[in-house]
Every structure is written in structure tokens, then in C-alpha cells.
Amino acid sequence: MVRKTKQKEAIFQVLSSAESPLSPAEIQNRASLLVPSLGIATVYRLLKTLKEMKQVVTVEIPGESPRYEISGRAHHHHFYCRKCHQIFELGKCDERIEDLAPKGFLVQEHEIILYGRCPSCAP
Ligand SMILES: [Zn+2]
Ligand SMILES: [Zn+2]
Prior knowledge:
Blueprint: H1 2-16, H2 24-31, H3 40-52, E1 56-59, E2 67-70, E3 77-81, E4 87-90, E5 113-116
Parallel strand pairs: 3-5
Antiparallel strand pairs: 1-2, 3-4
Helix pairs in contact: 1-2, 1-3, 2-3
Residues 81, 83-84, 86, 117-118, 120-121 line the site of one zinc ion.
Keywords: DNA-binding, Repressor, Transcription, Transcription regulation, Zinc
Protein name: Transcriptional repressor
Family: Belongs to the Fur family.
């Protein structure tokens, strides 16, 4: 179905140009500029498909609904603003973090989420 493909492409395009992980509602907002009449249920369904196809990944923050970003991005971390609930992408990584594991443990990967206030919400 042509229409379905167009909707999926719009979602993919929105995520490709996003500067940080987006919620389904944010994705719907931006994608509806490309494909008007894009419903939230469709966004959820297509995100599920894109995730199964490994084209998008979820960013999970405990107690928050998952956000989505394009898969295969360079290694990065996230900052979660407790006031506006936005998630920001952090480009920096200190690989010495893996030294936290005691001797004898093999670290295969790590995930870091920093919590606090973003510049707009900082007191
Ligand atoms: Zn904020
Ligand atoms: Zn890292």
C-alpha cells in the first residue's frame, strides 16, 4: 500500500533529522507536516514495525514512556530533564567508565543516563 509506505517514510525522515530521541506524540507532530492526517495509533503501529525491522531503537528512562531514535547512530548517551521530561543526546563518552567493573568482569557495553535540569529549566 503506497500510503502506508509514505507514512513510514515520513516517520523515518522525522527521526533521521531529530536532534534528540522523540516521543510518539512529537513524532506525530513533525511527521504530520509531511503526511497530513497521520493518526497517533498509526504512529505507534509503524514505530513497532520500524523497531522490528531494527531501523529504530527505543530509549528507555525508568518511569517514562519510551522515546525513539534511529538505529546505528554513533555511540552516545542521554540526559533526562526532570522538569520538562525531555531527553537530550550527549555526544561525549568517557570510556574509563568501564573501569568501574572489578577485575575479572568482562564489560561488553554501557549505557549512561544523566538526570537533572536542561538549560531552559535550570534555576
Ligand atoms: Zn528541561
Ligand atoms: Zn559511552
